[in-house]
Each structure stands twice: as C-alpha cells, then as structure tokens.
Amino acid sequence: MSLLLNVADSWMEESHPQVAFECCLNAKQRKFVCTKCRDICPNKVYNSPGCAWVLCEDCNLCVVACPTQAICPSSSTLGNFLHLLGTDKGIVTIACDRADATADLIVSCFGAVPWEMVACFALDAVVALDTGSCSICDRCSEKDQLSDMLARAARFLGTSYFTEHVRFDLAVPEVTGVSRRDALGSLLNMFRKTAAGLLPNADLQKSAYSAFYRKVLVGRLQKMREEGSALPVTWETPVFSEACTACSICSKVCVHGAIQVAGDAEDETVRYILHAGHRCVHCGLCETLCPTGAIKAWTTYSVSDVAAAVSTRIICVQEPEARKVHV
Amino acid sequence: MAYGMIIDLKKCVGCHACSVQCKAANATPPGVTRSRVERRTIGTYPNVKTEIIPMLCMQCGEPSCVPVCPVGATYKREEDGIVVIDKSMCIGCQQCVKACPYGARYFVANSEGYFGDVLAEWEKKGYVAYPAGTVDKCDFCLSKTSQGEIPSPACVRECLVGARIFGQLDELQSMIKSRSGYQLEPFRRKPSVYYLP
C-alpha cells in the first residue's frame, strides 16, 4: 500500500507545478496579501491551505502569474520546453490547445507563456505564435496578458530583433518536428540532461527552481557570450530617487537577491546600490516596502554582458537620534 | 481585551530580581535585556533622591514600532494586545529599535553566547528562539505560555516584594485610579504598563 502511495505521490508531483514557499510574497512580508495565483487558477487549486493538487490541470497559468516566480512549472511542462530548446530547429511554432493546429509546443493558453520562454526560443530560431484563437477565447481572465508578455519580450530583445524573430503571420505547418507524445516520452532524460547544461551552477543551490525560465534564459545568454556571439539585451531597473538613504532594506527583502548595497572604501557617507537586472523579476516588493518611498519609477538599460548590474551612488545623511525615555 | 501590568514603585527596591529571572526564564542572549531596571538621580544637594524605574516593553496601544516595520514582521495581537515579532519574517533592519521610545527592543547581531562561540547547554537550548540578525523584545512571556493559557511573566512571578501585578487591563484600572497610577507616556502611545507612585 505504501509503495502504491509513493508511486502515486511521485506521479502527482510530475504533473503539477511546485511552489517554493520561501520565495512566496506572503512568506516574506505581512503588509499585504498576494492572491495572484489564487485569482488566476481556473480550478481553485490554491483556495485550500495545502494546495489541492488533485484539481490541477497543469495549465501553467499560475507559474506566469506569480510576481516572484516562486512557482516552478511541472516537469512535463519543463520537459517540453527544454526538449524544444535542445533541438536545432529553424522555426518554433507555439499554439494554444483550442486551435486545431499541430505545433511544436501546445500551451493551454498564451497567458501561460512567460516572456522568457519566447525570448529563449527567439535567440536561435524564429518563433511563430498562432494567436488566432485568442480573439474568440475568454480563457485567460486578463486579455492584456498576451500583449504584456510580447511587449516585455520586445523590450528585452530590442524591437528590430523581436520583429525579425517573432512572427504571427506564419501559418502553422500541419505536422512538424516532435509531437507532444514524443516529447513526453523522452522527457525525463532530456530534462535532466538539458537542465544540467543550461543552468548556471551557482543558482542551483538555493530555491533552485524559482524563476526557472529566467535562469534558463540567462544561462543561455551567458553561453552565447562565451561563444562570442553576444546579443545586447535590455533589463529593467528601479530608479532610486534622492529620498533613498541606502538603508539596505530593499536588499534584505529582495527574493532573488537582485539588490546589493556596497560601501565606499574612502568615503563613509557614500554607498552604492547595485541592481542586477538579470535576477530582478519585477515583483515590486522593494517598491512597496521602501520606508522612504524612494523607488517610484522604473527604467531600462541595455547591456551586452547579461549579468551586468546598475550602480547608483547614494550619499547618506546621518539620521538624528530618536528621542528616548530616560538614559 | 488587553493584558497590562502595574509596577508599584513604593514596593520596588531595585534588586534586579526581575532582570535576572527574565534572563533565566527566557535564556536571552548577551545584549538582550527584555526587563531592566533604570536609575536616575533627581533634585540638587541636599534634596537628592534616586528614582528606580523597572523598564520593559510597554505593549503600547498604538505602538510606534509596528508601522515602521517594512515587512510587517512585528504586529499587535488582536486577542490580547501583546506586540510580538514574527522571527521568520524579521529582516533585522532595526527600524523598530530606532522607533521604540522606551528602548525595549534589542538587536541580536550574532549567535554568540556569554562565553564566545562555544555555547553552554542552556544557551544551546534557549538560543533557538533568537536567530542571529533579528530583533527581540518582551512579550509578557507569551512564548513560554501554551495555547489558550493566561501568560505568567517571570518578572511578576519572581518579584521579591510583589511589586508587579499582571492581569487584564480593564480589571487593573480600578487599582490604578485609586492610587493615581501613571504611564510613562511622553509620546502618546498608550502604554499598557502603569506605575504606582
């Protein structure tokens, strides 16, 4: 009986996303309650405290909706993605399962496609998105999700590169490449092999599978840079205004360690805030929790080195001592 | 409902038994003195007097430490009015330490004990509740109380002269009024600890 339960357990884990609770916004702070995953889930998986995975359809919507990317896609979703990434194809077609087309990657909804995935494919192939059925479908609650995703991918890759490599007008070919069934067959082996090759080792240690698509994308860009074909990319970065006191609260709350505060060797009043765009998933936690409200606006910066960080120079003013009772 | 405390300054002799018992009961690391006794001299010679004021967290009605916490790790419990810290959420930014007018909050910088890196048996057991890089404060011995029970603070239990009275604030009000008790209230934070002159 226990053996049966074990088998059922491992099978269940393969077919649903997993939550890295240490990265969840609700575990990090108590100022507000984030309900993004609960709101978007069509089957109300997240409504019960322990997550009712029995109801999960593995649609991947929650993975994309999570602001901190704390939800790791299921291994079958990952397997399909990584398998397709490993194959050397000139064109990658993505379609939604409502359309009758055959495509390399069938997704449950375009709201479940992270922009990192599109960018990943676009690095060495042309991505064809069959978004025809989106106009007649009401599945993903927020219609803007697709346009948001495309806008972020376009900003990241640069508009000219994006228009060259991501297309919507291509008719999806009838039968091409691997079918979903084939991909599933060789899934586990491919997943293990490709994941090991693609992920930077340092990132594998803690909360390994949060922000998974981002790590794959960054790993791939770093590899491209080593091979000498670096692509200039654009990351987002917060603007630290004059109100910033370099109290380093943002660096302490950042889920993915994107912000670091460094002192100056010569001048004690000068500090530097380093923001690593490749780690930042734009969850807005620093923006919300900043006690002085110093982060208001976001801007972009282009780099050829993926892991380059932006440095902001802050001059700290000594705070006056607060009044105390006695002594 | 809120818990409160009365400290009878007429009875208090400043023996520090409350500080010692607090240390013993909660096994607080060096630098953390949840309960302490302050002394100050008032007046000029020859009319000089030493005032002894035992201090602890006042469990304010409107705490100044709660709104400044960037992650909301510290909060006032609705059921008993005790201000507590969620240590798993605390990031150790020390904003609350700066904000507290009573100096009742302490930052645990490292996990060192009184004898350096090597911890004694008692320290090993007790310091689990004080992870390095978090802030600690008095919680009326709530952490030593099991669910549903009325807390029994060590300082109240062990006061040699019985100068401390702990209970529900509503029930203590009559005694406070009859003996004209006062709060240490320079900042209008509505503390729950009253002093009887």
Describe this structure in words.
The complex is a heterodimer of chains A (327) and B (197). In chain A, α6 (115-124) packs across α7 (144-157). In chain A, β8 and β9 form a beta hairpin. A 4-stranded parallel sheet of chain A has the order 4-3-5-6. A 3-stranded antiparallel sheet of chain A has the order 8-9-11. A two-stranded antiparallel sheet of chain A has the order 1-2. Chain A has 327 residues and is α/β, with parallel strands linked by helices. The longest helix of chain A has 15 residues, at 212-226. Chain A has helices at residues 2-14, 25-28, 36-40, 61-65, 75-86, 115-124, 144-157, 159-165, 180-185, 187-198, 212-226, 249-253, 285-289; strands at residues 18-19, 71-72, 91-96, 105-107, 126-130, 166-167, 233-240, 259-263, 270-276, 295-303, 309-315. Chain A is globular and about 70 Å long. Chain B is an alpha+beta fold and 197 residues long. Helix content of chain B is 20%, strand content 23%. Chain B has helices at 17-26, 65-68, 95-99, 121-126, 154-158, 169-178, and strands at residues 3-8, 36-42, 49-55, 74-76, 83-85, 105-108, 134-137, 164-168, 182-183, 193-196. In chain B, the strands form 4 sheets. Chain B has a 4-stranded mixed sheet. The longest helix of chain B has 10 residues, at 17-26. Chain B starts with a strand and ends with a strand. The chains are: A alpha/beta (327), B alpha+beta (197). The A-B interface holds A 27-31, 247-249, 252-253, 289-291, 319, 322-327 and B 38, 40, 53, 55, 68, 70-73, 75, 86, 88-89, 91-93, 95, 98-99, 101-103, 184, 186-187.
